[in-house]
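Before relying on records like the one below, remember that each one covers exactly one chain. Contacts with other chains, cofactors or solvent are not represented anywhere in the record.
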Amino acid sequence: MMDISGVFSRSVRVLAVALLFAAPAVAQEIQIEPGGTVVFPQIAFPPSSYYSEAGTNSTIEHIETERSLKGLPTEEFNSALFGPRLERTRASFPVSIEAAEIGGVPVLVYEPEGGVAPKSRDRLIINLHGGGFVGCFVECGGLESIPLASMTGLRVVSVDYRVYPQVTFPAATDDVEAVYRALLEEYPASQMAIYGCSAGGWLTAQALARFHAVGLPQPAAAAILCSGDGLGWGGDSRITGTILGDGELPRTPGGGQPGGYMTTARPEDPTANPVNHPETLATFPPTLIGVGTRDFAMSSAIQLHRMLVLQGVDTRLHVWDGGRHAFYYDIRVPESLEVFSVISRFLTDHLNDDPQAP
């Protein structure tokens, strides 16, 4: 793993939020406004003592890089921000990659170096990449699919679904359904799993809801990372995560480009935001939810976990203290390997649970 401890001249004890707030010289009272809004005085937040120094440095690097790229077109922004991370991921996890088309939808197929073992060739993992429904990172899905293909020894299919502004909801779900239907002709549902982070996590939930709505069998397991409902624009972490994890002032609920994609969605549609529809959630397969405490999506992830538990779904919540949104995309951070290990173990354990599996 690469060392990034010397990347910055500033102290690693300064978290991203310290770029915005300085510790007050005189103690001030916290104000409570009518309606319950809590107003803080100026305050500094040190890094979490449970988070690695490399993770803290990665957060600072992300914020400073993102700020330097503001105003660039989405494709250029993603290339500059995520390109170096993809190169480090490729160097750490040797895999093969092939562009293909499944169900009329472009995909990238990742396999571990040396190919998939014969005993695992009837098992497959579907990845839905992040990107806020407005684009995809360099090599859509590579940051998420490369480590998982290497660590599980399984084939991973990353779906290059359509995004805003070319399309709006439910085009991305349509693409995932088309891929899933085609894969069902080759793989039993009990030997497939699906996962994604951020917009890909929300889309994973939407896809599971769609599979139920159209009568398709659910996959064996799902993992929803750095997401829950509506990409996280609700709950306490909309404030705390945006400040602590991204060094930005909080956005208004429903704001941002993801709302652009979702403008054609109806609130009563269970395939749009499944967390609001208990009868749909009850059909979900075993589901892993993972998030960091400094992720703006933490509240939504916790809410999704809560609702799944209430419906009796086998679900697990993993929270990494100090982690920002999609922190595990940087494989230099020790916690990143933990995340991929947790995902790999959860998904493969459920694939291997099938008594018909070889």
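The chain is about 35% helix and 15% strand.
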